[in-house]
Amino acid sequence: MLFVPQSAPAEKVEASSPANFHPKVKPLVGSLSADAASLLNLVIKADEVYRGAQLLDLSSFSVKSALQISEGEAIEARSELERRGLIVFHDNGSGYRGFYPRLP
């Protein structure tokens, strides 16, 4: 699951605050939509917490809950990151599947 604590306050993540972005994401913020930049920021931070050892669940419901956006916006943000090659889906056929970041 995407690292969303149940007790987290329900406020929308603001992409316009560059101080909140991970240093790896800051150079890409201007070329991504606000939702995609926020999602990439969360993916990078989660990957660091798990030290790359866990694939991330980026289902539309998880992303919607994490970013406090609509499900359609969540799908579009994830699709944008996939199209740009910034996240990659992996499935080894044994039920171990999810996304991992792939930054340049």
Set out the fold topology.
Blueprint: H1 34-49, H2 60-67, H3 71-83, E1 87-91, E2 97-101
Antiparallel strand pairs: 1-2
Helix pairs in contact: 1-3, 2-3
In a nutshell, what does this entry contain?
The chain has 104 residues and is an alpha+beta fold. Helices cover 36% and strands 10% of the residues.
Structure characteristics:
104 residues; 3 helices; disordered N terminus; alpha+beta; single chain
Question: Could you characterize the architecture of this molecule?
Answer:
By secondary structure, the chain is α+β, with helices and mostly antiparallel strands. The N terminus is likely disordered. The protein has a domain of 64 residues. Strand 1 and strand 2 form a beta hairpin. It starts with 33 loop residues before the first helix and ends with a strand. The chain is globular, with a radius of gyration of 13 Å.
Q: What is the overall shape?
A: globular
Structural class: alpha+beta
* β-strand number: 2
What percentage of residues falls in helices of 4 or more residues? Answer: 25-40%
Q: Provide the residue-averaged pLDDT.
A: 83
Number of helices: 3
Which strand order spans the largest sheet, edge to edge or round the barrel? 1-2
Beta fraction = 5-15%
